[in-house]
Amino acid sequence: MTRSPVALLPRARALAGTAAQVVATAVLCTLSGLVLWSVLPTAVGWRTSAIVSGSMAPHLAVGDVVITSPVAVDALRPGMVVRFPDPTGAPRAIVHRVVRADAGGTLVTKGDANQSEDSTPVQRDAVTGVGRLRVPLVGLPTVWVREGRFAPVAAVTGLLALSTALALPRGAHPRARRQL
User: Where are the transmembrane segments (predicted)?
Assistant: First the structure.
């Protein structure tokens, strides 16, 4: 006795629904984990910075979040990725690599992707932290909002809402019908 393709449709739909639920749950768990990794370190005094330019590519991409911890001034060494206020006075932080210390004790920094060193040396005591962790892509919504690009923010919000709806256990959705 062979089943007709029409008789297999409910089973195929149930399997597709389960697969969608598993994928949606995995997406939500992954994103939740990344967000937690980018927020939890602030509880111990570390800072987070969303990367908004490509100056540190390929090690740090636009949209990555860098977590920095406080560092002793005498511990700063060439090769360290550091966070410091923009020397121009702009209300932002810069995350660049220390290239060397100059004769006056200030730090010469440079973005990994930049051809030349930063024009203004950084005072050691201006460094607010040293890079400890990179969380990929979590800062993209921040970058999009800063740039006034709200379509990607709306798209991600919609995908998260859809993922949440798909991840709900069957029967938990308010419109779900009871199956007897």
Answer: 12-40
Tokens of 177: 């019908």
User: Structure tokens of 8?
Assistant: 């297999």
- pLDDT digits (tens), the chain, 180 positions: 566 666 667 777 778 888 888 998 999 999 899 989 889 999 999 999 999 999 999 999 999 999 999 999 999 999 999 999 999 888 999 999 999 998 888 999 999 999 999 999 999 999 999 999 999 999 999 999 999 999 999 999 999 999 998 888 876 555 555 554
Strands (E), 13-138: 47-50, 65-69, 81-85, 93-101, 107-110, 129-135
Q: Say if strands 129-135 and 107-110 run parallel, antiparallel, or are unpaired.
A: unpaired
Give domain limits for the chain: 8-164
pTM for the full predicted model: 0.78
